[in-house]
Specification:
With 81 residues, this protein is mainly α. The chain has one domain (3-79). 89% of the residues lie in helices and 0% in strands. The chain contains three helices and no strands. The chain has helices at residues 3-31, 34-54, 58-79. α1 (3-31) packs antiparallel against α2 (34-54) and α2 (34-54) runs antiparallel to α3 (58-79). The longest helix has 29 residues, at 3-31. The chain is elongated, with a radius of gyration of 14 Å.
């Protein structure tokens, strides 16, 4: 990616990750339904993959994105059952 895009990306991804993870944890604290934890953990995996890729571990981005999206999907499916 161009350097100017990588400079701007934390200003968008960090608040987005905080609101997604925080919202899922807040919802879990109100309802104690486990699917909210799946969503929070999945979002944390995706965010950590992005963070690790900034430190030269690009391979971690794809693996953690795959795992994170799968965990969030499981949480989504559990919420509708």
């Amino acid at each position: 990616m161009p350097a100017n895009v990588r400079i701007i990306s934390p200003f968008l991804t960090i608040p987005g990750s905080i609101s997604l993870i925080g919202g899922a944890l807040y919802s879990w604290s109100l309802t104690r339904r486990n699917y909210n934890l799946f969503i929070a953990i999945g979002a944390l995996l995706v965010a950590s993959g992005g963070g690790l890729s900034r430190f030269g571990m690009e391979w971690a981005l794809y693996i953690l994105e795959l795992l994170g999206v799968a965990v969030m999907y499981i949480g989504f499916i559990k919420s509708h059952s």
